[in-house]
């Protein structure tokens, strides 16, 4: 019986850690590679990459590029659509730009190099609101599942919800042991 009482704090800690680990902010290399912010091989390459990821408040993106010839501009949706580089919300020129996604909704980025945006060097990221958070970072919904600036409810995690099962099983184990004591 004394051994079971000693396990309770360990199981409670396991439960706590398993729940916290699913809510950590993550850092994304744009395009999934170093030297990521350059002319893409296809015009929608960056947005296809973004659609395969699920971004949450507190996550950050990292864009790596040659600061002598390029930059990153955060722009309005209209300036994104028209590739207007003249009036950015923010301009980044350091060559390794880390941007924290600090609110839900869309973020729009274009290249500051003349003509690059028109060739597809642009990125739209949708950040989930806190109410749409799910355990883990599962793939993002397809464009058909989103409506302009609003995301549909998150689909089931790609891992089949194993994170939820781990949390529930840990919680059930703690409750079961407490019932024995």
TrEMBL record:
It is a lipid-anchor; GPI-anchor. Keywords: Cell membrane, Disulfide bond, Glycoprotein, GPI-anchor, Lipoprotein, Membrane, Signal. The keyword Membrane applies. InterPro entries: Cupredoxin (IPR008972), ENL_dom (IPR041846), Phytocyanin-like (IPR039391), Phytocyanin_dom (IPR003245). Residues 1-25 form the signal peptide. Residues 26-129 form the Phytocyanin domain. Residues 132-157 are annotated as: Disordered. This is Early nodulin-like protein 1. The lineage of its organism: Eukaryota, Viridiplantae, Streptophyta, Embryophyta, Tracheophyta.
């Amino acid at each position: 019986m004394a051994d079971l009482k000693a396990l309770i704090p360990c199981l409670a800690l396991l439960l706590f850690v398993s729940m916290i680990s699913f809510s950590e902010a993550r850092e994304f290399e744009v395009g999934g590679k170093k030297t990521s912010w350059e002319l893409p091989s296809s015009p929608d390459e960056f947005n296809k990459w973004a659609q395969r990821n699920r971004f949450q408040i507190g996550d950050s993106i990292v864009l790596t590029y040659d600061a002598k010839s390029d930059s990153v501009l955060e722009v309005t949706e209209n300036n994104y659509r028209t590739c207007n580089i003249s009036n950015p919300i923010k301009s980044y020129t350091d060559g390794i730009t880390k941007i924290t996604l600090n609110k839900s909704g869309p973020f729009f980025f274009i290249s500051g190099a003349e003509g690059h945006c028109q060739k597809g060097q642009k990125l739209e990221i949708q950040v989930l609101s806190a109410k749409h958070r799910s355990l883990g970072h599962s793939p993002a919904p397809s464009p058909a599942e989103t409506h302009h600036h609003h995301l549909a409810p998150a689909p089931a995690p790609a891992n089949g919800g194993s994170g939820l099962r781990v949390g529930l099983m840990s919680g059930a184990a703690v409750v079961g042991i407490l019932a024995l004591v």
